[in-house]
Amino acid sequence: MTVNTAQASGTADHKEQHLLEEAVERLKEKGLRLTEQRQAVLDAVVANRDQHLSCEDVVGIIKHSKPGIGQATVYRTLSLLEKMGLLFKSDLDDDCVRHYELCLQDEEAHCHLICLECGLVAEVKEDLLNTLEDRLHTKNDFVIVNRSLKFYGYCKQCAHQTGRE
Amino acid sequence: MTVNTAQASGTADHKEQHLLEEAVERLKEKGLRLTEQRQAVLDAVVANRDQHLSCEDVVGIIKHSKPGIGQATVYRTLSLLEKMGLLFKSDLDDDCVRHYELCLQDEEAHCHLICLECGLVAEVKEDLLNTLEDRLHTKNDFVIVNRSLKFYGYCKQCAHQTGRE
DNA sequence: TTAATTGCAAATGGTTTGCAATATT
DNA sequence: AATATTGCAAACCATTTGCAATTAA
After folding, report:
1. Is the pLDDT of residue B1 over 80?
2. Per-residue exposure over A5-31, b if at least 16 CB sit within 10 Å of its own CB, e if not
């Protein structure tokens, strides 16, 4: 639904390579198997690592390589990979559809400004976020791996028009 | 499910009073009516303004005052109030259950630390957030009304146990 | 052989919708 | 009278689950 092309985003770099190896390793640790289906799902997520994929998306992507794969298998695999810490559930909103993204650590923190009037979504990088995360780490002994930071309000235009400044 | 007592959180203060008035006003503007059912839903949300209420929660809360109210009505009302800007959809969660909270401006910013291992959700107040919001305001001309700040990672215990520190 | 995995189809569960009955302006 | 609103039940739809068949160790 949301996603267009399959192997879109190019080749896997160091991180993805490491991720794949870790996947195999962690599966083996628990006596689980890296089946063709699981491999296909992993490949799809890595190839589209800049996207937030739904189960339906993944099925669409691997339709060619694994035409007969069952939805349930994809659901189970995504859930499994998430529990293993390789994927994140990302909640980019509104509906009930679950989306996943690759769990690549050490990404630079950013946040979204979401206008309640016009719906504008602006992505903002703020170096203060690093300071904030450092402090959350040291003061709460919490190891941050990912974040979802959304600020709701009114963009310049809408704030002006609706007199909310 | 999530919520225990009904009129728990005490009397409405200035902000809630203002909110109720605004609700009536905005409804009238659009030729909509403040029915008993809508009033009951609003009351429930205001009385539990420190909670994130699901539809089921609301039904439970107003069971006494409006025993015969239909689920659909509550769903429709919550959705309506959200579109009017009086409620926020808050997505603190795993499941597909939609939760709402009162849209009270100028609340003190906080964020949630969510452990990917054990599921712990810790609410943290950080004064640095105010600085951050100030900066988002001045640098982006964005008027912040609410925020959803979630940091995912590993709590002290789990980080230790899984060797991710 | 034993245990994990899959695909299918049925079940689940929160949410939405069609519609006739009711209430409000 | 015209329109908004409600309650009910059915429909929806993403996700989960039971289970028998299949596959890998």
Report:
1. no
2. ebeeeeeeeebbeebbeebeeebeeee
